[in-house]
Design a protein that fits this description.
By secondary structure, the protein is mainly α. It is built from 19 helices and six strands.
């Protein structure tokens, strides 16, 4: 018999039970549900709402149920619908009518809102730790490659020489922003809704602040309607996860390109690569490709949450049961991608020679050549025109700017001198860019140290 069946004269059909039930996926909330119920029972006893001895008996029985679930001794029932009713049914089986006192001053509406907030707090911190591990790997790569020359790109066309360390730190700062967003999301998630009941609070003298403190929340929700119907924190979390996946996908896209024969900038470790069933020579960057593909899955989870909520009147509606599979999937996908990407990236071997050779091609020093002329007194636009015509000349004659002899250079402009060749060397192009955040080795190393301090501060927050 269902715990809510008193008003009904007919049993629900099995078809309805199967369709209505959420125990197949919300069972993972068992720890959060039981922990929240223990805090609620303690409060009921402290407030004299139920006898203290009954509260103690409920808490002891719930602790036993938790242990039995963890030991694999409990089978959940579809007929009991969800994790909340399953736990309460087990409680009543074990201690009889005393167990029926637990739900005093509480609804499944605020109970599920509590459980999902407790779950999200835990998962946000877990994802933050994974992001921190990834940032550490990237910072190590940057520190070890502060002088490793490579071409920088715009429009996927070679643009200017940079370093691998500078490139790596671009992604590091993306992931640091992701950690910052996770911290913000955690702050708004860490509010306790228990005591909102179904939608209108209760006549019992609940101590909501005690329960919130007991469960590690910063405070309580300030409106009972909002307390049971708010899922903003899930939308915000899924948005944070989507941003993480965008950054992972972009990094993966570059590593896929770089691992191709055309680039040859990086070699994936055999442990994180796959082969072909027909082509013996193939070594495929499947980890990066899968992460790139899974980004769309997380975006879909965010869209599902937005669509589910957009037309709901206050307060709770059964549609909101659909929030769990979406957020559970987003959490699991992001965690899995972060874990394997960090291991993959740490095992990559970068080909410094190929990167340097790639920088020599494509006229990546053309901007520095124009800057050279500006320093000799030409307006920048005139210098830009001259160097552009020189690039065209080099393309037609199959050479680079540094291949032109001084006499040829002077045909383009009398301002050229012997110091031009030093001015457009790759090392000069990079080392002279000393502005904070630039690719000069000292700037890269400074940014690594700054990022390490930022990471330490971000992960020290609750």
């Amino acid at each position: 018999m269902k715990l809510w069946s008193g008003r009904f004269s007919k049993d629900t059909r099995k078809l309805m039970d199967d369709f209505h039930s959420s125990i197949s996926f919300d069972c993972i909330l068992y720890k959060h549900d039981i922990t929240g119920s223990i805090a609620h029972a303690e409060m009921l006893g402290r407030q004299g709402i139920i006898p203290k001895e009954d509260a103690d008996a409920v808490c002891a029985a719930l602790a036993g149920i938790l242990q039995d679930i963890q030991d694999g001794k409990v089978s959940f029932s579809t007929e009991a619908e969800d994790i909340h009713m399953n736990v309460e049914s087990l409680l009543i089986e074990r201690i009889g009518d005393t167990g029926k006192r637990l739900h005093t001053g509480r609804s499944r509406n605020d109970q599920v809102a509590l459980d999902i907030r407790m779950y999200m707090k835990e998962q946000l911190l877990s994802i933050r730790s994974l992001l921190a591990e990834l940032c550490s790997v990237i910072m190590d790569i940057a520190q070890n490659n502060a002088e490793t020359v490579m071409p920088g790109y715009t429009h996927l066309q070679k643009a200017q020489p940079i370093t691998l360390g500078h490139h790596a730190m671009a992604y590091c700062f993306m992931f640091l922003r992701d950690i910052d967003r996770i911290n913000d999301c955690y702050k708004r998630t860490n509010i306790c809704p228990l005591g909102s009941c179904a939608l209108a609070g209760t006549t019992y003298p609940l101590d909501r602040e005690y329960v919130a403190s007991r469960l590690g929340f910063d405070g309580i929700t300030l409106n009972s309607l909002d307390g049971v119907s708010d899922r903003d924190f899930l939308i915000e979390a899924a948005s944070c996860f989507s941003a993480i996946m965008v950054h992972l996908s972009r990094y993966c896209e570059e590593l896929v390109l770089w691992s191709s024969n055309e680039f040859g900038f990086v070699e994936m470790d055999d442990r994180f690569s796959t082969g072909s069933s027909i082509m013996p020579q193939k070594k495929n960057p499947d980890v990066c490709e899968l992460i790139r593909g899974k980004s769309g899955r997380v975006f879909g989870d965010l869209q599902a949450l937005l669509t589910m909520l957009k037309g709901l009147p206050l307060a709770y509606n059964k549609d909101m049961q659909e929030d769990k599979e979406s957020i559970f999937d987003a959490v699991n996908t992001v965690k899995g991608c972060l874990e394997i990407f960090t291991a993959t990236l740490a095992s990559c071997k970068f080909n410094a020679r190929k990167m340097r050779d790639g920088s020599l091609l494509g006229f990546t020093n053309a901007t520095d050549a124009a800057d050279y002329m500006v320093k000799k007194g030409l307006p920048f636009r005139e210098a830009h025109r001259v160097i552009g015509s020189m690039v065209l000349y080099c393309i037609e004659h199959g050479c680079s700017l540094s291949d032109l002899d001084l006499n040829t250079l002077k045909e383009f402009s009398p301002c050229f001198e012997e110091d031009f060749y030093q001015a457009i060397s790759l090392e000069t192009c990079i080392n002279s860019r000393i502005t904070p955040g630039g690719p000069a080795p000292d700037s890269v190393l400074a940014s690594v140290q700054q990022a390490r301090r930022m990471l330490s501060a971000l992960i020290s927050k609750p």
